[in-house]
Amino acid sequence: MLTYRPRWVAAPASLLLSTVATGISAQEEETAIPGVPLGFVYESERVPPIAIPPITGPEWAPQVQGILARDLDYSDRFFVMKSLPDGLQGEGVQYLLWDEFGADWLLTGNIENSAGGAVLDVELHDIVFGSVQARGRFPLPPPGEPGFRMAVHRVSDAVVEWATGDPGMAASRITFAMKPFGNPDSQELYIVDSDGEGLQRLTWDDDLAISPAWSPGGDRIAYTSYKSDLPKIYELDLVTGQERVVDADGAGTNFFPAYHPDGDRIAFTVMGTEADGIYSYDLERDCCRSRLPGAHDRDFTPTYSHDGEQIAFLSNRFGITTPQILTMPSSGGEADLVSPYRFGQGGYFADPDWSPVSSKIAFVGGIVDKRVYNEYDIFVADTETGDSRLVQLTSEGNNEDPSWAPDGRHIVFKSERSVGHGIFIIDTATGRTRTLVANVDAKDTDWSPLLAGDWVAGGVRRGAPAGRR
Description:
This protein is mainly beta.
């Protein structure tokens, strides 16, 4: 009989810890925030095995199978089984044999060529219940065409949703800023697929570009650039390649744009005026800059809640050496403290990012002593539950610029750790961490929504020199 031991992710089981709790290690005690209950989010969780027999069809069918297998592995919803026995890959689905082999799920597929291109037929089988969970037909462009990989990613996301009821995140991209290779005097925007493939340079301004932000539709990116001397916010249309200046006539310098979930306006930080703070701007009407009522001139880096009713932001109201994370209604009002400020105990918290599907906010921070050594960790707080526990996701190196995936489960961030500089992704449910882009000194990571189009791979390259398009 074929047997298989399912994979288990080992981690502490939802323990509330503090610096005075029994059993805390010396290392944990050193890095914990004084007087703040810390929780380990990682619980023991069974990851169901999924088998993916060879997809039938043209000679490039193995490419499709490889992308699907990696996407489902990176989703952290499945354990992708290797070395499948030939006897189980014939005609029909032998549920009892797959069950004996240890599979919970089986994904089968066939690619057919048609007049308008290829079509991938897939079926997800629930081995435990011996039935077809779901099936679908998905158009595929030929390999090598711009939309090929993204089309397969969308199939992976459909499989995740069929099995779990939750959205996937494969059909998405991450943008970030870094110095171009060979030109250390500038900083440009780059973009990469969620699986680490397709790294592309997005801007060619030969200046300083920072804080990119995706629009809710995934067809625009707003960012701050110094290319006009004073920092201004630009919005790049990824469909047309056209760019415009946001709030072109506004006073002061503008930083840190964040789109409202409706996509019709942005919030951003204004500095260098008599009324600094957080402002909003109507993108559709291209007018009407207004300061957020109740905002302080020491408030920065806004991020909208998933329903657009709230914003989170960094504030220096407690002192410039102890910034904290606050929330307030997006229409203005009283502010509530989210980060664990304790008078006289310091603490440094920044880079808030609100989950696109829940009430959770990710941010970075550490005690003042850690800030001296330039080491931050990533934390998550839930604004809806009222739970005073603060969940710490990282414990190694210096971690900054967290941004949520569209599935509300994964977070991308930049880090400097034992394996070097790079961009990493962490699964907030299991703690599994993988490298997205290795050996780059990047910053300002931002994760796109699920993408309905393939704008960047479609050829938007503003001002790219010949030979780089």
